[in-house]
TrEMBL record:
GO-annotated molecular function: dioxygenase activity
Domain of life: Bacteria
Protein name: 2OG-Fe dioxygenase family protein
Pfam families registered for this protein in UniProt: 2OG-Fe_Oxy_2 (PF10014)
Length: 268
């Protein structure tokens, strides 16, 4: 895939490097949404077919997850085959060490993303844009880079339902000090909530409204396609709030792509 001729503004001014996090739009990432319109449809179609989280089937959370490996010295990006799974066909292990208080030190097996997405041009462009925000770190220059690709939907059908992310508190994703997490909104319709919060590392495990003054760096909602953010994991904590049904007719749904980046070793 052809790379942009010049780094987008958010890369040039080093927001993630400078502050430990950055809010990122499609323009910040150097992504021309019209060029990738068909590929965007492919991603959103995949989000409509996400299975329930196998570890929390009543949380109204749906997800798929796969690993890829990036070689910085060649630019190659290759997906790692998932393990055979009786329910999902193939599944990939997801490990957050002790940084997820709901599943401490648990190796969860999550259904893989569809193989058809391995060739999705927009997905690859987003991953490479995220890598551009992370590869200033020397620890990522001379080792294979682990890329976790996560599709997550929070969906509700009536006003009694609440859809929650995991963990439902400020957290870090753990693993290496060279871990980064990026989020890109794929769809949001007829929902309330889903606020994103970025706070100090010490805030992990707490709710945003319980924090002392100065602990919260930013609070915002992702509303437009490909709106998102990136965090250098060890320098901040992050959170997304529960989702409830909005005022329009029909179901409510918030769909997002999460890209995790770390040196290739167990722990992402």
């Amino acid at each position: 895939m052809a790379r942009p001729s010049a780094a987008p503004a958010a890369v040039r001014d080093g927001r993630v490097r400078r502050d430990g996090y950055a809010r990122l739009s499609a323009a910040d990432l150097g992504i021309d949404t019209e060029t990738f319109a068909t590929d965007f449809e492919g991603l959103t179609d995949a989000c409509r077919d996400l299975p329930p989280d196998p570890y929390a089937r009543r949380t109204n959370r749906f997800r798929r997850y796969s690993h890829a490996v990036h070689l910085p010295w060649t630019g190659e990006l290759s997906y790692v085959p998932g393990a055979p799974d009786d329910e999902f066909g193939t599944a990939t292990e997801y490990w957050q060490d002790e940084h997820n208080p709901e599943y401490p030190r648990m190796r969860r097996r999550l259904p893989d993303i569809p193989p058809a997405l391995h060739g999705n041009r927009l997905l690859e462009a987003l991953i490479r844009a995220d890598l551009d925000h992370a590869l200033w770190l020397e620890d990522l220059h001379r080792v294979p880079v682990y890329v976790g690709v996560h599709l997550i939907a929070l969906a509700v059908r009536d006003r009694e339902q609440v859809a929650v992310s995991s963990p439902n508190c400020l957290h870090q994703d753990g693993g290496s000090p060279a871990t980064f997490t990026f989020a890109h909104l794929l769809g949001r319709r007829n929902v309330e909530g889903g606020e994103n919060v970025i706070a100090t590392p010490e805030s992990a495990g707490r709710q945003p409204d319980d924090l002392p003054p100065g602990a919260v760096h930013d609070r915002f909602f992702l509303t437009e396609p490909l709106d998102g953010y990136g965090v250098h994991d060890q320098r901040v904590s992050h959170y997304v709030g529960p989702v409830r049904l909005g005022d329009e007719e029909g179901d409510g749904r918030r769909e997002i792509l999460i890209v995790g980046i770390a040196p290739y070793e167990p722990g992402l």
